[in-house]
From TrEMBL:
GO CC terms, sorted: cytoplasm
Residues binding substrate, per UniProt: W33, Y126, K255, G288, R372
Name recorded for this polypeptide: Adenosylmethionine-8-amino-7-oxononanoate aminotransferase
Cofactor (UniProt): pyridoxal 5'-phosphate
Gene giving rise to this polypeptide: bioA
Highest taxon of the lineage: Bacteria
UniProt record similarity statement: Belongs to the class-III pyridoxal-phosphate-dependent aminotransferase family. BioA subfamily.
Length: 406
């Protein structure tokens, strides 16, 4: 409230450009917190919302249903890994994580394993700001350290080593010891596959996800994969779990699901999970958001999925990645830069010190780009529709922002 750097007032947005009240135009290097993958004011997405308004904006999703929701869940089942045949629509990513955790707890009760009330995760993760989501996020390096004493207890394995091809033998040895201590009381393990987002843009080996799948199968846990930030092509495959060749028991999606237009998320699960939940004493999943299955959000989400297919999202992400690789390369020559990394449409420069956020943001804005650094990271997640020139400008702005933090 007392920040001397007030927020910029955006008066309009189109394509990948934000227009401020003073007329300044900034390329949005954040994709509106990674959600606006098609940019702003896309005519197809605008039309989907307007068409849906002609019939209804919202109706409760308890005892009632509607075609936009039915159509969307059909598409999600077709698009996601085989076996995730059931969909629970939620109204935000954090809520979808809460739903996934409830699924795990009710599933275990349905199997006669009511003592399994603990979640397992890895250090460095971030799953949202609601209490269940906070409890499985990093307890020390994350945003929620002050709430530690009020959160449910979670078993945290070490953070996996960095890099897609890193050796994980030592990590497995250390993690195995913790698993052996706690396996009988764990209900589920939850991780962001391959890329930890707000916990530090940490890229780790897909082999870790495969090992966690094996542990879940061996010990009777569920595997929950949080693809809220990584899903719908952001990391270079439609879902990050594809790099591991693993199908989770529950998968959370959000952010890009609706193209950044309306808040919407989902928790998908297998038939086995549904049967376990229904076998619990409640007989049904104990969750029901007011705006679950909002027709406007569902309609625009289906249109967004259409665009992902028609525009070959993965080819677009590969093109963005190539631009980030070349554009961020000069940052490697800066003495205070620890690492430069890219994965799909994600580009990161990591410093050896905390970023001076106002200074870095001003440096990027000076080149016509909006970024939002955090901790020791200056990064971009461009909309997939960004042109090569726009990606180059975003990358140059990240380098300039990193240079400003000397």
């Amino acid at each position: 409230m007392h920040d001397p750097n007030p927020p910029h007032q955006v008066v309009s947005a189109s394509g990948v450009t934000l227009t401020l009240a003073d007329g300044t135009e900034l390329l949005d290097g954040m994709s509106s917190w990674w959600a606006a993958v098609h940019g702003y004011r896309h005519p197809r997405l605008d039309a989907a919302v307007m068409k849906q308004l002609d019939s209804m904006a919202h109706v409760m999703f308890g005892g009632l249903t509607h075609e936009p929701a039915v159509e969307l869940v059909r598409r999600l089942v077709d698009l996601t890994p085989a076996g995730l045949d059931h969909v629970f629509l939620a109204d935000s990513g954090s809520v979808s994580v809460e739903v996934a955790l409830k699924m795990a707890l009710q599933y275990q009760r349905g199997r006669g394993q009511a003592q399994r009330t603990t979640m397992l995760s890895i250090r460095g993760g971030y799953h949202g700001d609601t209490f269940g989501a906070m409890s499985v996020s990093d307890p020390v390096g994350g945003m929620h350290e002050m709430f530690t004493d009020t959160l449910a207890s979670t078993v945290f394995l070490p953070r996996p080593p960095a890099g897609l091809d890193a050796d994980i033998d030592a990590w497995i040895a250390e993690s195995t010891s913790l698993v052996e201590q706690h396996a009988d009381r764990v209900a589920a393990v939850i991780v962001e596959p391959v890329l930890q987002g707000a916990g530090g843009m940490h890229v780790y080996p897909p082999a870790v996800v495969r090992w966690l799948r094996e542990q879940a199968d061996a010990h009777g846990w569920l595997l929950i994969l949080d693809e809220i930030a990584t899903g719908f092509g952001r990391t270079g495959t439609m879902f990050a779990t594809e790099r591991a060749g693993v199908v989770p028991d529950v998968m959370c999606v959000g952010k890009a699901l609706s193209g950044g237009y309306l808040t919407l998320a989902a928790a998908l699960c297998t038939s086995d999970v549904v049967e376990g939940v229904e076998a619990s004493e409640a007989g049904a999943l104990m969750h029901g958001p007011t705006y679950m299955g909002n027709p406007l959000a569902c309609a625009v989400a289906s249109a967004s999925l259409d665009l992902l297919g028609e525009n070959d999202a993965l080819a677009a992400v590969a093109r963005v990645n190539a631009g980030l690789e070349s554009g961020l390369a000069p940052a490697r020559d800066l003495g205070h830069v620890l690492d430069v990394r890219t994965l799909g449409a994600v580009g990161v420069v990591q410093l050896d010190r905390p970023v001076d956020i106002p200074v870095a943001a001003r440096a990027a804005a000076g080149l016509g780009v909006w970024i939002r650094p955090f901790r020791d990271l200056v990064y971009v997640m461009p909309p997939y529709v960004s042109t090569d020139d726009e990606v180059a400008r975003m990358a140059a702005a990240v380098v300039a922002a990193a240079q400003s933090c000397v």
